Amino acid sequence: MPGERVELEPTSRGSLDGLTFAAKDVFDVAGHRTGFGSPTWLETHSPATRTAPAVERLLGAGGRLVGKTISDELTYSLTGENVHYGTPLNPGCPDRVPGGSSSGSASAVAGAACDLALGTDCAGSVRLPASYCGLLGVRPTHGRIPLEGICPFAPSFDTVGWFARDPEILERVGLALLDGEALPGDARRLLVARDAFELVGDEVREALDPFVRRVARVVGARDDVTVSPDGLEAWMECFRIVQGFEIWQSLGAWIERAQPELGPGIRERAEAASRIGVDEASAARQERNRIRSLLDRLLQAGDVLCLPTAPGAAPLRGAKGDEVEVVRRYQAISLLCVANHAGLPQISVPLAELDGCPLGLSLVGPRGSDEALLRLANRLQ
Q1: The whole model's pTM is what?
Q2: Which of these is catalytic: 77, 125, 348, 369?
Q3: From CA 298, how far away is CA 223, in angstroms rounded?
Q4: Residue 247 near residue 76, CB atoms below 8 Å
Q5: Is the confidence at residue 325, as pLDDT, over 90?
Q6: Catalytic residue among 38, 71, 101, 228
Q7: C-alpha span between 358 and 207 (Å, rounded)
Q8: Rounded distance, CA 330 to CA 199, Å?
Q9: Of the listed 24, 38, 102, 250, which one is catalytic?
Q10: Is there a catalytic annotation at residue 125?
Q11: How do residues 124-165 score in pLDDT, each as one tens digit?
Q12: pLDDT digits (tens, 9 = 90+) for 44-103
């Protein structure tokens, strides 16, 4: 982040001894202001009185905090372009965006400025930058890492996620962060999401196919399945309504009071969120419960669902807003919303390339299978 540098020494020794980490500027650090990707938010909020538990856990495991990182404005974007603070570099493909909203954290890890970094993932804000920048990126089971001390957004979808270049480090971070009991056992059956692969273009399918077959060999069994009988685009629309309603509940009063100068794309999405009514949101939540039940029946213990993380390589920097913020965003969320609806863990693994740029393959497991997914990612790498 521009301005004040935020650094903290480890508070104890542990599994992250000697490693450095950064934290997206949505995590509170005691004595410092949290910016949320918005100069107006920074100006209208006092310094934090305590440090977010997720940051404390990494410090307690021996990690050293070396800085806060740029976030997309109010985390309400997936491109990584912040009109106020600029676009962090995508070291994997410098002429392209890093992806958002955990753009700065992805950039810092991909550029080897730190060993790992914290982000947040609601719609896909860790998984998509991981794919674009050639990183391992984790969205955990919803609720397994506390959200206290993190800027509010859409609580029923929000998760703390993290990036790493090394799968062993990725797993060690998970062991430091995750609460609750892990689902026992390892992956025994790969479910290939036929409809998700049909959603992306032929080039993406061809780039990922050798790695899908590699995952199947490691896991030991493969079935091709249709994830959404309704179409993934319909699931994306359901997600958009529930997420937008929750975002306005979290941020609407502040937006109306502070009147921030919101950047392009952010402004339009905030306005759309403000128009979602209680009845529309209630109906979408009922639909979300149905989707969750469908996914619970599909994904049994020992199963791993495989699908593309992104609809393609990262868009070029400065691409037309309609292409990136509407077409590409809707395509991406249609893929990413599967885990979001049911609160499932997902890891994007940087296995493929497209047009000379990184392209991630995603692994989704049942709730609580985070540790099994981390072990599988380690084996694949």
Answers
A1: 0.97
A2: 125
A3: 11
A4: yes
A5: no
A6: 101
A7: 10
A8: 11
A9: 24
A10: yes
A11: 999 999 999 999 999 999 999 999 999 999 999 999 999 999
A12: 999 999 999 999 999 999 999 999 999 999 999 999 999 999 999 999 999 999 999 999
